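Bench notes, afternoon.
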Amino acid sequence: MSITNPTVTHYLAVNQPLQLTSGATLPEYELAYETYGQLNEDKSNAILICHALSGDQHVAGIDANGKKGWWDGYIGPGKVIDTDKFFVVCSNNLGGCRGSTGPTSINPQNGKVYGPDFPIVTCKDWVQSQNLLREHLDVEQWAALIGGSMGGMQVLQWAIDFPEKVRHAIVIAAAPKLSAQNIAFNEVARRAIMSDPDFHDGRFIEHDTIPKRGLTLARMLGHLTYLSDDMMGVKFGRELREGKLQYNYEVEFQVESYLRYQGEKFATKQNFDANTYLLMTKALDYFDPAADFEHDLSKALAQATAKFLVVSFTSDWRFSPQRSHEIVKALLDNDADVSYAEVKSEHGHDAFLLPNPHYEGVFRNYMKRVHQDTLAAEAQK
């Protein structure tokens, strides 16, 4: 069953400066967030969902524009993350373009759009701002933090920076830091955007345009890394759009058509801000919590007290199961309570968003444990 009432975006205005990892300071900001379900009397059933690169606060249900949440298949009454049991919260990351303060916002210091002047933000900064949202909601401890891909990285950062505020940490299709290959993909995507003639050094809004070509190419490249070779082979093979070769540089193969459609949709229909794309990929590149602990992930996770579920997917070559093994090993080095599942899937990195009976079974069973611990916490108060 889905959430039937139109979802509503709320805004938390923060008037205290946020000291960022980069050394810059954000004098004030807003966080956009949605909630689903009911917070129980002792506020022990709250779950925070952390979104991936192009995600936002609209994670479940249907909004006023008829748009379905990006993880609606897993969140709602009776679903894996059951809103009859849990109070689910999801915020748009700082630097985003879906309501939280970011490059498309007005800089209060000069009254102009931030654009490229919006400071670089990191995963650690997001967690700091999300913790203020926790305080605003008067939640003492999250029943669970849940995130896939970049969202999983935020969950790890939460478990390290605010261990006492996290009861369960669910890290899906993530990695403890990007590989050189992943950083390289991000750099090519950024160069595609920044070399677009309409980029105007990031001040494209002032020029009343968008770097559509660059953003489209960046999304096409990113999308390629989210899919597996096997899945693309099954879905497209070498199927031709017109049934025969045309011997020109127009779209001939169905896979070309698909990628162009995905790129166009991202750059136009969703109108994702190009500066936000640059910021988010940089935040991914910078993520390396072990760097503060002599580059020893086991030492970094020694701070964590949460119980963990780590999930990876066999065909995910961007954040392969081996990267999850690194997380699990570091947790086991600390005798942490950790469950791990390696799920067979042909869908590559995107598998964490898609239906999969094995994945759903593992996830649902773990959420029963989260619920049992929530009831226990409730009984103690």
